[in-house]
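Q&A log
Question type: sequence-to-structure
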Amino acid sequence: MKGCIVTIDAMGCQKEIVKQIVEQGGDYVINLKMNQGSLYERVDDLFKEAIKSNFQGFEDSELRLTEQGHGRNETRLCTMLTNVHDLIDLDGKWNKLTSIGMINFMRTSKDKTTLETRYFITSLSCEADVLAQIVRAHWNIENQLHWTLDVAFREDDCRIRKGNAAQNFAVLRHISLNLLNQETNLKKGIKRKRNLAGWDNEYLIEVLAGINQLSNKSN
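Response status: OK
Response body:
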């Protein structure tokens, strides 16, 4: 991972994941939600303190972006507090947690306005415009992935809700999609390749052979 920036949703906001990224020479930008209770509270409190003091004593940067399209207006305000490790990671358990980011979204569509705030932790010491670019690139990939999973696997129609079943099936869909993408002999779309894997055992074996490649990449 040397020289790479790893972006992960809140589900991957775990100390061990951060440790592995840093030990392999990478940097990270990770979405932070309330599942990390104490860390989330410290980040939330620090931004409130910074705003209240008009950012006096903080290394901060800010970027405002406004976009129009698809019948809606969206304004994103990205704020970055840099080099705050000693104020956030009090126990030293988050490897190279250097900076925190906050992006406020205001969306107006059909005379309805919604507000949303998202927090991020990162090992980078960068300006708000860099964070905004990294987060936007991550969302573009996520949107493309969601579209593929919905079209090829009908993910949005899935009604599995009990226990951890929904999360488990989401993981299985991602593994299946990665395996189908790795199989390059058949020049067809994902949906066609998935159907063929269900009809033809020989082709299914070809697809499943990619499991070893995925395992080697993860190692």
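Response note: The chain is about 45% helix and 25% strand.
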